[in-house]
Amino acid sequence: MMTRTGEASAAIATGTVAEVTRVAVSTVIFTTRRLEGADRPAVVLPLVRRTRDPYEGLWALPGGWLGLSESLEEAASRTLAETTGLAPSYLEQLYAFGAVDRSPARVVSIVYWALVREDETRTPQPEDPENVAWFDAASLPQLAFDHNQIVDYALWRLRNKVGYSRIAHGLLPDEFTLAELREVYEVILGRRLDPANFRRQVESSGTLIPTQSFRTGSHRPARLYRYDRDVELADRGPLDARQ
C-alpha cells in the first residue's frame, strides 16, 4: 500500500501535480549612509527592480532560486553577487518565510542578512545597474511579495543584536573612535545616546582594545579602538559549518 508521501512523490515524478514547493534565497544587506540633506547617516539597503511578473516594476530584495548543488549560504552569496555585485565576508541566516499566500506559486524563502561598510558599496558593479538602487530602510516603498515584512524583521533583529554582540563592527573600519562607534549605535537604535554612559559601557564590555593611534583634526585627538577578534562577530551557536 502506497503512503501519502509515496503517492505525492509518484505524482510529481509523473507530472500530475501542477505545482511543487520551491526554495528561494534572499539577502538583506544593511549599511549606513548619509543621505542628501540629512545631518546624520541612515540605515540603507540595496533593492532590485523586478523585470517580470509577478510584481513586475516593484522593488525586491536581492535573491534567486536555490541550486541543486548549492548550500543555502552559497546560493545567498551567488545571487547577491549577481544582482548587486556585493560580496560581504559574513552572512548570517535570518529566518525562513513560508506563508502560503506570499507568492502566486508555492515558494519558501530562506533569508540571509549582513552588514557592510559604506565604502564597500562603492566599487561593486551589478549585472544590471539601472535596476539596483539603495533605499532608506525607514521609508521603503511597497515592495514585491512580503519583502517589507522581511526588512522590518531584519531591522528588529539588528536593533536587538547590537546590544549583546559586536555586530556593529560590520559597519566600521578596522580602527575607529568611540564617537564613530556611538554614531553607528545611534543610527541603528534611532535615538541619541549619552556619550559618557556609552563610553563606560563599551569600555567595560571587554570587546574593545585601545590602540596607540589617534585621529587628529580640528578637535582634541581621539584614540582609535579595534574590536577583540577573539570575540565572535555574532553567536552562531553550535553551527560551525556553513548551512
UniProtKB/TrEMBL annotation:
Signal peptide extent: none
Residue ranges occupied by any Nudix hydrolase domain in the UniProt entry: 20-159
InterPro entries with a match to the protein in the record: NUDIX_hydrolase-like_dom_sf, NUDIX_hydrolase_dom, WH-like_DNA-bd_sf, WH_DNA-bd_sf, WHD_NrtR
PROSITE patterns cross-referenced by the UniProt entry: NUDIX (PS51462)
Annotated protein name in UniProt: ADP-ribose pyrophosphatase YjhB (NUDIX family)
Source organism (scientific name): Microbacterium immunditiarum
